Amino acid sequence: MSGAKSLKVLVTGARGSLGSAVLKKFAQSGATVFGADMDGPFEKVTGATFIPVNLADTKSVKESLGGLEADVLVHCAGGFRFSMTDQLQDNDLDFLINANLKSGIILAREVLPSMKKKNFGRIVFVSARGTQNPSAGLSAYLASKAGLNMLVGSLADETKDFNINVNAVLPTIIDTPMNRMDMPQADFTKWVQPTELADIMHSLTTPLFNSVHGALIPVAGRV
């Protein structure tokens, strides 16, 4: 591709703190950006278009994103639930699998055909540092994110001959209003800033990182 200004970028979770930061970063670079998320209030950003969609539903993804033919997919959407395994509810398990794993598979399946046809593509997922250092109460959450790690590895092997790079960032705690509300006594200065993570994710789609493929990149902050 000739440069950032010719890129068509799909950012999921665009209404969230991280997705919004990523969307703004790509828009500032001059790319044509599409922000996908469940329907609701969306901050207007110059150069960005919002698309309401259920990312874990094949029909919704095809209807809303089918003709997009994105050059870059940055999948920020996801979900979190805390529960000891013996207390885990089915609805929470389904939510985590759908939000963190199924959505990633559906989106990859949607964007790959056009990327292969163009012989170019960049895909960045958001996993979790905890998949490399698991702890209690996170079994279903981390299992869903670990599945995403395996998706990255498999996709990297599938796409290595098509100039498509697939990577994931593995943050610890991201500094969001919701996380601050859930952990009011924490030292927020040690958390990962959404804008910093957005910079890293944007960089992974640039020529500087052409040789980085199939990587799981920890972004730990100071946690």
Automatic annotation (TrEMBL):
It comes from the Eukaryota. One of its GO terms (biological process) is fatty acid elongation. One of its GO terms (molecular function) is oxidoreductase activity, acting on the CH-OH group of donors, NAD or NADP as acceptor. InterPro entries: NAD(P)-bd_dom_sf, SDR_fam. Gene3D superfamilies: NAD(P)-binding Rossmann-like Domain. Belongs to the short-chain dehydrogenases/reductases (SDR) family. PANTHER family: 3-OXOACYL-[ACYL-CARRIER-PROTEIN] REDUCTASE, CHLOROPLASTIC, SHORT-CHAIN DEHYDROGENASES/REDUCTASES FAMILY MEMBER. This is Uncharacterized protein.
